[in-house]
What does this fold into?
Amino acid sequence: MEKPAIAGGKPVRDTKIFYGHQYIDDADVKAVTEILKEDAITCGPRIEALEKKLCALTGAKYAVVCSNGTAALHIAALAAGVGAEDEVITTPITFAASANCALYCGARPVFADICSDTYNIDPARVQACMTHKTKAVVAVDYTGQAAQLDVLLEMCHKRGIILIEDAAHALGTNYKGRAVGSISDMTTFSFHPVKTVTGGEGGAVLTNREDLYKKLLLYRTHGITKDPQFFEKVSHGPWYHEQIDLGYNYRITDIQCALILSQLDKLEQFSARRKAIVKRYDEAFLEMPELFVQQEIPESDTTRHLYILRIRPECLRIDRKGFFEAMAAENICCNVNYIPVYWHPYYERLGYKKGLCPNAERLYEEMMSLPLYYSMTDADVESVIMAVRKIVNYYKS
Ligand SMILES: *Cc1c(COP(=O)(O)O)cnc(C)c1O
It folds into this structure.
């Protein structure tokens, strides 16, 4: 039997492969360098161009682009009216920002457990967490697979609760034939370099509701408006503007928007490649009973941002940490997305306790994210599979 590198064998590859990486081509470079010579490098025409493009891509009525995905979640929570004494329900298996947006507004995040097979927030648990204090639900399309949006929307709207969809992983995903971005009350995206499309940094909130759109614009820019219809006082002249609420500087530059616009031209290509890699991983791992493959719901046509390798510890003589280290020794650098949010010391200090969401905690102990990005070659993909197979065969009990 072939020995894994960690047990003294030869690694499957000589060079390291990382779990995510951006893809920038000459068209992207040209788009960015062109903008540098123009008059406006922030607050210029690329802002609106990107907002229009996001609407065209998703079918959403309005888009507000901003500095990053975290800022997008913050202004979405503010627009939803989240404030002190309120509760916001979200999943523990997400990046901390999905819950932090509630804290920014003085509200309390409430964690609803995930489904143990799809890894997305369980609507039955969401229902059980709803109280008269619930102002919003932040549903994450974890790994890129859409949450059960129809069920969640109905549940929220019955009680006057706003559904914010954190779709940082899910650009390019369709749910029941509709693009993610056009479905929930508000949908947020991130353009961080590990995400499907990047601007270096960047974010967006999409909505079909004009009232929410107007609030998002205000919170993006200090709570200041130049639109006379919102003025509370008499205008002093053409320069006049008013701060009518407390907002932030969450603007994005035209430089970043130019890059995102250029990247979006490749979205279909990015999406197709990610789907092909996922298909190959699934085929290979479904044959190994020592592994559990993430369940897909038929409603979601998924552009996957993350590929989760989940081990069945009862079938192996090593745990997740051992498996992760064995992969690293093969020169395959994995990641773990995510530590349950309420396990972080900051959340512990707020009173959250281990044991709150058993499905999420179990998933955390058994999973790692495998390399998944557009520019991976077929040989890269096969080397990841070979490494997994070698480790599984060597350590199976
Ligand atoms: C990346 C990410 C964010 C935050 O986006 P930034 O652009 O990094 O601020 C929020 N939620 C999820 C689920 C993410 O993956």
Observations:
- The longest helix spans residues 267-286.
- The radius of gyration is 22 Å.
- Residues 68 and 202 are 4 Å apart (CA to CA).
- The longest strand covers residues 134-140.
